[in-house]
Amino acid sequence: MEESSNFMKFMNHGFGAMWAVAVFSVIALAVGIERLVAQWKFVTRARLLGEVVTRCLSRGAVQEARSACERSPSPIADVFLVGYERLGRAKPEHVITAVHRERMRVNQDLRARLWMLGTIGATAPFVGLFGTVAGIIVAMGDLDPEKTVKLGEIAGPISSALIVTAAGILVAVEAVILFNFFSQRAGRIATELKLLTDEFLELLLDQPSDSQPRKGKRDDGEPAAERRDDKDGKDKGNQGNQGNQGKESKRTKGDDDGDREAA
User: Fold this and answer.
1) Tens-place pLDDT, residues 180-201
2) Residue 39 DSSP label
3) Is the per-residue pLDDT at 144 higher than 80?
């Protein structure tokens, strides 16, 4: 019971500022653990998938490379799958744009929630300073102005108030270290993704046309149908011309016979 009361007395320093600093510390620690799990072996998995895809595309096995991406848990697999989906259905420059757009989305996911660490690192010291100032104000207000104040009477309240500032600075250091660590790691992963994506696009766009998916069978069948319709039209036209020529020759022969009878 006494320990609980001491804990509550400690946390009530600075008019609740210590509670805010404690919440900041928990949030920073939770974000750090979440980012560590998200970025754990990210580069390793991406490199392994990149090697498999490179080997498959080097020998022209596009479908095998796509199947490897569909089975892989690595986020870079989503980048590669965008290229497979648009291969043969869009212009090469559009394929490149779509793949890099998906890569940038993955890069943004790597930096998710890092803003929370930056915000805690910037604001935690000021929250602690607010608690210290509030504690000093309360300590000064409790002094009797008509009596001589000794150093021992104000040393205790001031030192207690300074605890909040120390806690705020400690939490800020924690958040800044985590922010810098994961920001640097996200930048290194982004560079690795850029290299793997460029190599993937070079091999993908160099694939022969027969190994690429076609736009559709209807497109291939339409020209043949049009050619058949044109041929039928031409045949009918030729038959019509021959019939007209026959009628004109008969008409000319009849006119010649009539002239002879009149003579």
Assistant:
1) 999 999 999 999 999 999 999 9
2) T
3) no
Both tokens of 16, joined, read 């609740």
Res 220: pLDDT? 44
CA distance 39 to 41: 6
Tokens of 157: 């309240």
CA 41/CA 9 separation, integer angstroms: 44
> Quick one: which of 58, 27, 19, 34 has its CA closest to 174?
27
Distance from C-alpha of 100 to C-alpha of 83, rounded to nearest angstrom: 9
Residue 131 is which amino acid?
A: G
Q: What pLDDT does residue 13 have?
A: 67
User: Which residue in 171, 172, 165 sits closest to 130, CA to CA?
Assistant: 165
116-120: list long-range contacts, CB under 8 Å, 24+ apart. Answer: 116/27, 116/28, 116/31, 117/28, 117/31, 117/32, 117/175, 117/176, 117/178, 117/179, 117/182, 118/175, 118/179, 120/24, 120/27, 120/28, 120/171, 120/172, 120/175
pTM: 0.70
